[in-house]
Amino acid sequence: MKLTTEFTNLEKSSVKLTVTVAKDEVQDTYHSVVAKYVKNAQIPGFRKGHVPAAVLERKYGDSLKADAMSELIDKSLNEVFEKKSENRPLPYRQPVMDEAPDFDTGKDFVYSVTYDVFPRVSVTDFSGITVKEPQVEIGDKELNEELKAIQERNAVVMDKKGGDAVEKGDIVTITYSELDEDGKEIEGSRRQDFVFTVGTGENIYKIDDEIVGMKKNETKVITKKYDKKEADEALAGKTKKISVTATAIKVRTLPAIDDDLAQDVSEKYKTLDDMKKDILRNMEVAKDRKIAELKSNSLLEQLVEKNSFEIPQSMLDAELDGRWRMMAQQFQTSPEQLEKMVAASGQTKEAMLKEWTGDSEKMLKSRIIVDSLIKERAISVTPDEIEAQYKKIAEDGGITVDEVKKHYSDARSKEYLIDDTKEQKLYAELYKEVKTAKGDKISFADLFAAK
């Protein structure tokens, strides 16, 4: 196709594309469209396929031009975007035409569209960057905490006797809903079969103390006033009325920490010492992974601050929408129903998305910097390096190399492993170009609370 293009960079990684299609292409396309109409047109007084073109043009002139113009735009855009170019549009938003173009078969056809492109960033400033590595030791205290967690996970859970009331430490199943001032249920606030352990505070309204003493199938209306310093902004300083029904009450019995427990946990353990050794190995692997994550997060955060660039609004909107849908999945509901649930708690979707914007923008910029650096430095991986990764994953996971390869056997998983390996090679290079230092001593538990 005979055409010329002109790209103009705009703010926030947007581009204005101006396309000029040669006059003879315009004429050929128009005549092709007219020929299609002639072939299929049915007008009284003429046989199908024998309507003179002049008659069609008088009767359907505007439609013919509109079809020819649409075809020219589609064909020319496809030709422009099929080429591997940094000016290809992002998938989040379709190109938008600035204004309706003029169509004249006797002239070149010129039109413009604007759209978002992948942000361009050249990461050149590494000055003053220091990455600190937390100092973490794993000893008897950390081992015993993990053993206790395993003990709790393997507890025997049984129904309480019918007349026994809820106590702290019990596992309860409740159905709850928030009530308005008139005692009517607020739409979208009902949650059925919600399970939690009393005393953990792992429920929206923090009603652990209030349901202690309830019996199975008992319903209770709880009125609770929340402190202004409550961490949940939807509750802070407010008074809530909640209807709660205890539908099941269970008690947990903990097993002894011994060889029998080890054998119940896994066939590969013969003794408690076998399990302890494996726990310590797994904790060391988890520690190394978390420290690596914190180091890379710190490095990228500093690179984002030092190498300023903008991201398209469409990219940010897509990321926020993805987070919203993921949150709906976690609550086992639809995005629409989640919006009602959030509204019932005094929040709004818009406010939550606004709250997420800063972190989402930083995360997107970090990913863009990583992608850009990998391309700039032409970082690649060899089959031998992938084999080495298989062996490391197998060693860290206490499984065989064949099991690892089976996990990464499909194309998508293999591509993920390749991308991750490239990223680790990039970090290894970057740590040689910035200052690294020992960080503070922290506990194993605090390490995983760090961001």
Supply database-style keywords:
alpha+beta; 11 strands; five-stranded antiparallel sheet; four-stranded antiparallel sheet
Précis, in short:
The protein is an alpha+beta fold and 451 residues long. The chain has helices at 23-40, 53-82, 140-153, 208-211, 259-265, 272-306, 313-330, 335-344, 349-376, 383-397, 401-407, 411-431, 444-449; strands at 3-9, 14-21, 96-97, 109-116, 130-135, 156-159, 171-179, 191-197, 219-225, 239-253, 435-441.
Secondary-structure map:
Blueprint: E1 3-9, E2 14-21, H1 23-40, H2 53-82, E3 96-97, E4 109-116, E5 130-135, H3 140-153, E6 156-159, E7 171-179, E8 191-197, H4 208-211, E9 219-225, E10 239-253, H5 259-265, H6 272-306, H7 313-330, H8 335-344, H9 349-376, H10 383-397, H11 401-407, H12 411-431, E11 435-441, H13 444-449
Parallel strand pairs: 5-11
Antiparallel strand pairs: 1-2, 2-4, 3-4, 6-10, 7-8, 7-10, 9-10
Helix pairs in contact: 1-2, 5-6, 6-9, 7-9, 10-11
